[in-house]
Amino acid sequence: MAAPALDEKAATKEVPRSASFDDEKLGHDSDDSQSFIEGSEGVTQHDLDTLRHVADRLPYAAWLVVFVEFAERWTYYGTTNIFNNYIRAPLPRFSTTGAVVIDADRAGGVAGALNKGQQISFAIRTFNTFWVYVTPWIGGIIADTLWGRYKTIMVFSVVCLAGHIVLVGSASPPSLTNPDGAMGLLVFSIVIMGLGAGAIKANVSPMIAEQYTGKLRKVTLDSGEVVIMSPSVTIQSIYLWFYAAINLGACGAISASFLARDNGYWIAYLVPTCIFFLVPGILLIGKNQYVKTPPRGSILLETIRVVVYALAPAWSINPLRTLHNIRKPDFWDPAKPSSYEEGKLPAKITWDDEFVGEVGRTLNACAVFLFFPFFWLCYSQIDGNLGTVAAGMRLDGTPNDLIQNLNPISIVIMIPIFDYVIYPFLRRKGINFTPIKRIFTGFIVAGLAMLYAAVLQHFIFQKSPCHDNEPSACMTPDEVQLPADINVWIVSGPYIMVGLSEIFASITSLEYAFTKAPVRMKSVVMAFSQFQVALSSALNFTLTAVNTEPKFAWLFGSFGVTAWIIGTIFFITFRSLDRREVELNAIGKGDRKGFADEQTDSPTEKS
């Protein structure tokens, strides 16, 4: 995939041939009383407030990481996108592989294998999602404390590859003769693949952004305009294109639906397994190009100790009193070395005051992620339930589980529009579309998608004899499902709208997790952000009893209203963080004199 420029001028077709530092304007033409922003190259607050902000360009190594994510996501979606039919539906007539083998059935036939029904399919898929978003904790902790991100990704890519090989074996024709045995192998492969994919997931997101090492600076473009080359805008653009790579991989997995229907499931799972071999290969190619953050041994343990020291005097039997104490400005003082008299500092305090500030600001900023399980509840419906909705509509030769690929396709189309047109336009007009506002917008759009799905399901029930995949109601004597007389492509609305909501909320959460975490805790903080998907899956799992077609309309509708309510509460709670954006982005970037980080020369090393 070609690396697009991340320079805002590229959006307006005014790409300069070169850009140079404005040597005369690096703070020297401003009032001497103005101080430079810490960590910048001669940028004052006045510059920051008045000059246009643009994105910088990315190094070659960053695009290698993008390609790793592209290949890994192709393999993930190339398998999970077809889990629903594989588990839910029976083998088609005369099939031993799950393929639809009778030409007359091809137009409306649905591939299948294990015949376990909608609720078991939902339970297995929900467990898969839960597991994949719990295991980032494992990868994040190992990377931040033991191996570093590069080695962690490399090792767990081999683990993930082993899981894919088991999955292929589980779907072979001999295995499918024993559906219970095939189900056991499927679950085993999900556990192995989830361990590998989750560990990769926690580390590849921060690894791509840390390839960019530029600073806040003023630059003069060939047009003569002086602009701010902004790391925060660059990080925003990085994660837009990183998310595009994720969804390009998901688009590549479109072939899985046709492979399953026409050739069987073992072939459909073999293709992504072969593609996954690219991941360790690409990592090896870029080994000497990557910016790598070395592990910092005890930082997670030290973080926990900081929290324990701060909580000890604030704790009360009365929960309201505890909450009141936590919100006090001096809450973190008991954990600061400066709070103790000389000679009375506890031996377990091995950090300095700045580290306590990092922990406090990081936890406060990352509290925004606690609202995300309700956003992911909406997203989870496109993973399987909407595929079941599509199976009850007129397919006209389209595999029902193909429609869900409209979600990544729409994201891939919309991301360049946002990065090159919409966001630069807002910046030129002085509209500060901050992370909190973007996430709030994502909640609203996700809610609209669910209400669309609820209304659609209502009309399907009015036009279809099939209400719960019961053979007596849904099948002809030739075992062909009777659909509602509604074209399946009408279900595209929720998929596209959820994709739009992801651009606002999900991409921003990646950006937020990276920018608000100290350098040596980025994998763990990213794992915490992604853990919200696991919490959403656990919450969704409690709704298994209502995940049946007769209740889909109420299920979708309730998720939509919930997204609106939670999104509004989120915005009211965190809107003040927008005013502290620059401060929060500076977490962990100051000097760390006296802290254990002195053991290393710099926070990153190039190797």
How do the helices and strands line up, and which of them pair or pack?
Layout: H1 8-11, E1 20-21, H2 45-50, E2 52-54, H3 60-80, H4 83-88, H5 117-134, H6 136-147, H7 149-170, H8 173-176, H9 179-209, E3 217-220, E4 226-229, H10 231-252, H11 255-263, H12 265-276, H13 278-285, E5 291-292, H14 299-311, H15 319-326, H16 353-366, H17 372-380, H18 385-391, E6 393-394, H19 406-428, H20 435-463, H21 471-474, E7 484-487, H22 492-504, H23 506-515, H24 522-541, H25 552-574, H26 581-585, E8 605-606
Parallel strand pairs: 2-4, 6-7
Antiparallel strand pairs: 1-3, 3-4, 5-8
Task: Give a quick summary of the entry.
By secondary structure, the protein is mostly helical. 58% of the residues lie in helices and 4% in strands. The protein folds into two domains: 57-297 and 360-594, MFS general substrate transporter like domains (Growth Hormone, Chain: A); 309-349, no CATH class.
